[in-house]
Recover the amino acids of this structure.
């Protein structure tokens, strides 16, 4: 598979819902910094809440300077396994918009899982039954202010989880690296659609966990953000990391042999048994540890010739 990126339009997520969530996100990020800082995430909140620019780890372990983004993490307490305090009164609208968006994106994810199950030679419900009964999923609202072309809003990385789905408003910047020659391709992630009943388009990305579950059949693709436009880019990002307790080795049916009906079955992933939650936690630790090791070293190489320049 050349790339783990694709587009999805789902009737489970109407345009009016997405526009409402984007309105709430843009409104939050437009507030004064001192007000946003009152809602910072911490260990006590399960890291739900606001992270200012430079306040968290970089996506790319090769980025020496803090990446040019601020974010707000919303997680459903029941799926994240712990309790969370009710949102502050001034965040009630943001919380309500994120909650509805989260629920709708879970439904959209089920459609993707059915398609992936069929593509891997399994029953349509196979992945949902094995790894998606109590999924760990979160919504991340991200704002990228304009940067110079010599900077990166978010450095090159692959997502450590299973599936990322996103759309955005304003600016530009999402770039995907082509496997064949290393060139960076611009990807339009603007929410599209027409009217309250229409469905927006999401850019979807299969991550490291998907590559492991599929035995490498699905690629986890490097990508980055370079918002060199004149306006802020605000993105709605839905991260789905499957059931934390589910084993991250799924039987995958190989193509061929009796029309696929009696194909050989192998165990995807490595021989070391991990749950999905353990795998994602280890990948996050690697990302944070790699950044710490490089903090006094060289910064990430930047393809200064533009989006199509190899690196």
């Amino acid at each position: 598979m050349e790339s783990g990126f694709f587009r999805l339009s789902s009737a489970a997520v109407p345009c009016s819902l997405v526009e409402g969530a984007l309105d709430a996100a843009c409104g939050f990020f437009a507030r004064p910094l001192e007000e946003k800082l009152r809602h910072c995430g911490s260990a006590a909140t399960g890291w739900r809440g606001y992270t200012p620019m430079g306040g968290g780890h970089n996506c790319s372990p090769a980025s020496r300077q803090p990446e040019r983004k601020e974010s707000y993490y919303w997680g459903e307490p029941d799926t994240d396994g712990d309790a969370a305090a009710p949102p502050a009164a001034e965040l009630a609208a943001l919380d309500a918009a994120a909650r509805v968006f989260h629920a709708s994106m879970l439904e959209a994810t089920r459609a993707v899982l059915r398609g992936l199950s069929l593509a891997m030679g399994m029953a349509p419900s196979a992945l949902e039954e094995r790894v998606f009964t109590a999924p760990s999923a979160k919504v991340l609202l991200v704002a990228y202010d304009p940067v110079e072309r010599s900077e990166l809003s978010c450095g090159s990385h692959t997502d450590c989880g299973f599936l990322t789905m996103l759309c955005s408003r304003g600016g530009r910047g999402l770039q995907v690296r082509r496997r064949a020659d290393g060139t960076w391709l611009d990807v339009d992630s603007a929410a599209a659609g027409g009217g309250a009943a229409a469905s927006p388009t999401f850019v979807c990305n299969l991550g490291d966990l998907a590559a492991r579950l599929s035995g490498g059949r699905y690629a986890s693709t490097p990508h980055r953000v370079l918002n060199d436009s004149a306006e802020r880019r605000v993105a709605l990002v839905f991260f789905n990391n499957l059931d934390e307790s589910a084993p991250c080795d799924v039987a995958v049916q190989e193509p061929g042999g009796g029309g696929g009906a009696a194909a050989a079955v192998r165990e995807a992933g490595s021989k070391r048994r991990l749950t999905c939650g353990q795998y994602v936690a280890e990948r996050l630790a690697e990302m944070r540890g790699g950044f710490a090791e490089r903090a006094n070293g060289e910064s990430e190489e930047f393809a200064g010739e533009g989006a199509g320049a190899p690196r």
Q: What stands out?
A: Helices lie at 15-29, 33-36, 77-80, 92-119, 126-131, 208-213, 276-294. The two ends are 21 Å apart (CA to CA).
